[in-house]
Amino acid sequence: MGGENESAGHPSDLDRRWHLARNAHETDVTELEFALMRVSEAFVRWQSECIAAASGLVMSGGENALLHVIRLHERPKPLKELARLTNRDDIANLQYSLRKLIKFGLIEQHGARNSAVYSATERGRQVTDRYAALRAELLIEITRTISGGDERLSQATQMLNLFTGLYEQAARVVATHQRDC
User: Fold this and answer.
1) Distance separating alpha carbons of residues 64 and 53, to the nearest angstrom
2) Exposure of 173 by Cβ count < 10 A (0-12 exposed, 13-18 middle, 19+ buried)?
3) In whole numbers, what is the pLDDT of the chain averaged over residues?
4) What is the per-residue DSSP string for 138-158?
């Protein structure tokens, strides 16, 4: 397929039409979004498998991420900070994950419910250290083989942070101006 939906650098014999796109730029954004979805699912699957190997526990990728954020800088954190650092607003789900991590003995709660802070236990530190070792062996070593990898990783991080802001702004606008259906 050629024409309006064909972008530079893409083979012209591929059908790049999307119902979400009306031109080459929109096609490129749409394909980025689908790539982000696939990366997100692969990343969550990696986190779940790696934490299972490190701990013998069944945890979601989000629970694994939460455990590492709790350990970040080796200082206790309140729920509000955990939500901000993970860019989440589903407080009930975060609370469920915190209870699960407590039940597994990976974190502990200090203080009353409204002023509670969470920190990693000794077991939580051991599990996150094993996770870090597996990550270094199985993932980080592979990333070292990418030509210009450090610069490319930095650029990708900047681009993802930029898109996070763009999607947050677009979500605020659509939430503000939603019509009743």
Assistant:
1) 12
2) exposed
3) 91
4) IIIHHHTTSTTHHHHHHHHHH
